[in-house]
């Protein structure tokens, strides 16, 4: 029996609509070829451009569409010259994280053989790890509510038992799934600064409590500064890493750099009931409308969405299609024949997306 899933689509700002359209087209093509699942898509207006036009950044109807949907596909959001009166950016993606308690920010980092990377990888080495960033609290807890006086400024870091226990449970389950699939070593690393901050010592203690429930997996710790060093020196050693919100924000960009740029960096923000899938890069308004934006991170985020839906609803065909779509992008990038400008090539958005579609259905 065919299972139908509703996807709420936030097409975003700047290049957002340009990379969303071919991604949705690919998803429609894949779903139409499968007897096991179907996809419907609901447009959900939001973002900086919508705010500039209407005075509203996140309509209630769009929030309700997100809550009703089986998954949320969200494109690049924000415009540097469109801000709230207090000077802060318009970030519906952060609103969604908080409203839907999307505590696990999942950032895969993958560099396959033949793929260009700023690193000189040793012969036979590839990079395949996942960074999990807590996405609702940490140093982002008081976003927009920090205290600023003439002489000082304060922000509050918050780490709670409730969210951390959910985060670590999710992390170890992901590591177990990667190990079972042959993609990971069954190793989980807690990235913190427990030698300086009591909050991170608390974070680490909760990690250790969850680790004790998974004797079949290896658990260890690393300070965030050392982790940044090792991500450059020996990134192939990592499997699954989990960390606080701000540390994860920084390290995920370093991971994107290992892959060659944000144009190859997908992400997911996952909670117990909802999940948002979004490229890590920004809206790049300087190239909007030129047809040259890189769609690969958006397409890879869609692949993560298929995988998550397939696991959550027990639809193996969706998991398989998620893997096929991810591998198709990786193959196109590794071949190096059809790359966008940010990756050193000359292909436009549509040509890059067409190469992925051809790899899926012709190769």
From TrEMBL:
Keyword field: Amino-acid biosynthesis, Branched-chain amino acid biosynthesis, Leucine biosynthesis, Magnesium, Manganese, Metal-binding, NAD, Oxidoreductase
Names of required cofactors: Mn(2+); Mg(2+)
E.C. designation(s): 1.1.1.85
Broad enzyme group: oxidoreductase
InterPro entries: ICDH/IPMDH, IsoCit/isopropylmalate_DH_CS, IsoPropMal-DH-like_dom
One of the protein's GO biological processes: L-leucine biosynthetic process
GO molecular function list: 3-isopropylmalate dehydrogenase activity; magnesium ion binding; NAD binding
Source superkingdom: Bacteria
Database matches in Pfam families: Iso_dh
Limits of the Isopropylmalate dehydrogenase-like domain: 6-356
Family: Belongs to the isocitrate and isopropylmalate dehydrogenases family. LeuB type 1 subfamily.
Quaternary state and interactors: Homodimer.
Protein name as catalogued: 3-isopropylmalate dehydrogenase
Organism: Pseudoruegeria aquimaris
Lineage of origin: Bacteria, Pseudomonadati, Pseudomonadota, Alphaproteobacteria, Rhodobacterales
């Amino acid at each position: 029996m065919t299972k139908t899933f509703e996807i709420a689509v936030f097409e975003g700002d700047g290049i957002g609509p340009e990379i969303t359209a071919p991604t949705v087209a690919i998803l429609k093509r894949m779903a139409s070829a499968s007897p096991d699942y179907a996809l419907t898509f609901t447009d959900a207006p939001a973002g900086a451009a919508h705010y500039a036009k209407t005075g509203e950044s996140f309509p209630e109807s769009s929030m309700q569409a997100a809550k009703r949907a089986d998954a949320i596909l969200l494109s690049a959001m924000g415009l540097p010259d469109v801000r709230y009166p207090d000077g802060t950016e318009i970030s519906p993606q952060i609103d969604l994280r908080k409203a839907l308690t999307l505590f696990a920010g999942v950032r895969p980092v993958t560099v396959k053989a033949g793929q260009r990377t700023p690193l000189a990888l040793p012969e036979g080495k590839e990079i395949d790890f996942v960074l999990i960033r807590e996405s609702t609290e940490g140093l982002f807890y008081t976003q927009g509510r920090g205290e600023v006086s003439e002489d000082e400024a304060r922000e509050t870091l918050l780490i709670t038992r409730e969210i951390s226990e959910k985060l670590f449970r999710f992390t170890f389950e992901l590591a177990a799934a990667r190990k079972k699939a042959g993609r990971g070593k069954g190793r989980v690393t807690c990235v913190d600064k427990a030698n300086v901050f009591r909050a991170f010592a608390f974070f680490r203690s909760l990690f250790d409590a969850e680790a004790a429930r998974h004797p079949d997996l290896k658990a260890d710790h690393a300070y965030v500064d050392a982790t940044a060093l090792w991500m450059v020196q020996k990134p192939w050693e990592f499997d699954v890493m989990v960390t606080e919100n701000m540390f994860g924000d920084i390290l995920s960009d370093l991971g994107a750099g290992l892959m060659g740029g944000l144009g190859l960096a997908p992400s997911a923000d996952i909670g117990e009931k909802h999940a948002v899938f979004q490229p890590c890069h920004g809206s790049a308004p300087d190239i909007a409308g030129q047809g040259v934006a890189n769609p690969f991170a958006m397409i890879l985020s869609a692949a993560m969405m298929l995988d998550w839906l397939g696991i959550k609803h027990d639809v193996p065909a969706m998991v398989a299609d998620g893997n096929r779509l991810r591998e198709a992008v990786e193959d196109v990038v590794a071949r190096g024949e059809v790359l966008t400008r940010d990756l050193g090539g000359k292909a436009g958005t549509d040509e890059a997306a067409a190469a992925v579609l051809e790899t899926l259905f012709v190769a």
